[in-house]
Automatic annotation (TrEMBL):
Domain HTH cro/C1-type span(s) in chain numbering: 12-67
InterPro entries, sorted: Cro/C1-type_HTH, Lambda_DNA-bd_dom_sf
Species, as recorded: Longispora fulva
Gene Ontology MF term list: DNA binding
Residue span of region Disordered: 1-26
Protein name (record): Transcriptional regulator with XRE-family HTH domain
Length: 415
């Protein structure tokens, strides 16, 4: 189909045309954005192993050497980064205790454990390492409590257990076995449904939609998100049942969840090259600016004014809209982003924007800033790893030493 001298991008194009697919078709089936497919084919973005593994099923390819070329030998369809805590997390996800005895921890204690884990995720520079160390015990304690509590207390524990499963999903997303990622998402949804709490269920849909989007099931993700909006939208319109602090806090969390659903739909549509992303983003923006307290950030997802602007930048970059991305990014101070993990990922998006604009110096500078915020985010992010490798491969002489030093900082082994 293609000669040995052709590039990976040329091979992707040849296989796509042989299958009778447009770039948009291939993007939808692979879970990559149309912009990413376009840039891989024209050589503006290198073909990573992660991207190739997503493209291969849509292209009916069994051996990735067909994309990378015969000189690499046979490449398997699987193979991901790993992390030292994965075996312990796997055991916690797949360990079923047939007998549970003793007294369970209180709901307040368990909520504090979940809050602490999420705080660590959002404040640590080594969020995967630190959360990976506490996740197994957290899951086991909540699983045990869900077996021992009864009535309303059990439903509250199940809602917390759903959050713990979704924290496992976030931890596993970039470096876990795919079946574990799906297992954590499914367990989270099952716990949420058993808790019978609309906001918890909507939150589980939000987490599941991220996974559906990543595996190319865009339409399904959008439909599930729409159903979740329909579920909690009436609760938002009804307002708190009374003016008590607890009721107001619960309503605020429901409003934040509604905004988060629209933001997830916006990014899902953007990665499919759908301009309707902006309508979803606009809905989230109106909810956040008119219904949430100034400076609010959800304790687990961090949705609020700043997070909404970050999503706007992501959507624009995915759509290849550099003008909108720049307009939204320019007034946004990364230091205002409440989460260390989100701040590093935002800087990666800005590096992607610099890449779109052809600024090698800008890419390297922003990658360095992201690594300074959290080297783990750059190290484990497929996008971050790809950009660091390309920075080394394409850097002119005056930038190469800096690029190589960055690769060492984020533990990327160079060929």
């Amino acid at each position: 189909m293609s000669s040995p001298s052709t590039s990976p991008g040329d091979r992707v194009r040849a296989h796509r045309k042989a299958r009778g697919l447009s770039q948009s078709d291939l993007a939808a089936q692979s879970g990559l954005s149309a912009t990413t497919v376009k840039f891989i084919e024209n050589g503006k973005r290198s073909l990573t192993l992660s991207a190739a593994q997503k493209l291969a099923p849509a292209l009916r390819i069994d051996d990735l050497a067909e994309l990378f070329g015969p000189q690499v030998g046979t490449l398997p369809m699987t193979g991901r980064l790993t992390h030292p805590s994965i075996p312990a997390v796997r055991r916690a996800l797949t360990n079923w205790s047939l007998t549970v005895t003793g007294e369970p921890q209180s709901v307040d204690y368990l909520r504090a454990m979940v809050d602490t884990a999420w705080t660590t995720w959002h404040t640590s520079q080594s969020q995967r390492t630190e959360v990976g160390e506490v996740l197994p015990a957290l899951l086991e304690e909540l699983q045990r409590a869900a077996r021992l509590h009864t009535g309303p207390e059990r439903r509250k524990v199940l809602a917390l257990l759903a959050q713990a499963y979704h924290q496992a999903q976030a931890y596993l997303a970039w470096h876990g076995d795919q079946e574990l990622v799906w297992l954590s998402a499914d367990r989270g949804m099952s716990s949420a449904l058993e808790a019978d709490d609309p906001v918890t269920i909507a939150g589980s849909v939000w987490y599941s939609a991220h996974l559906l989007r990543a595996t190319g099931r865009t339409d399904e993700a959008v439909e599930r998100l729409r159903e979740a909006v329909d579920l909690i939208g009436p609760l938002v319109e009804a307002g708190p049942r009374d003016g008590s602090p607890a009721r107001v806090a619960d309503h605020t969390e429901t409003v934040a969840m509604l905004a988060d659903l629209h933001l997830c739909a916006a990014l899902t549509r953007a990665r499919a090259g759908d301009q309707a992303a902006w309508a979803e983003w606009g809905k989230a923006h109106r909810i956040v600016t008119t219904m949430l307290p100034e400076g609010y950030a959800h304790p687990w997802t961090k949705v609020g004014t700043v997070r909404t602007e970050v999503y706007g930048v992501m959507c624009a970059v995915e759509l290849g809209d550099t003008a909108s991305a720049t307009r939204l990014a320019d007034p946004l101070d990364p230091a205002a982003i409440h989460s260390t993990e989100h701040r590093a990922r935002h800087l990666l998006e800005l590096a992607r924007l610099a890449d779109l604009e052809g600024s090698r110096e800008g890419v390297l500078h922003l990658l360095g800033q992201a690594a300074h915020v959290s080297a783990e985010v750059v190290s484990f992010s497929p996008v971050g790893r790809d950009m660091v490798r390309r920075a080394v491969e394409t850097a002119p002489a005056y930038l190469r030493a800096s690029a190589v030093a960055l690769a060492g900082k984020v533990a990327i082994v160079l060929d």
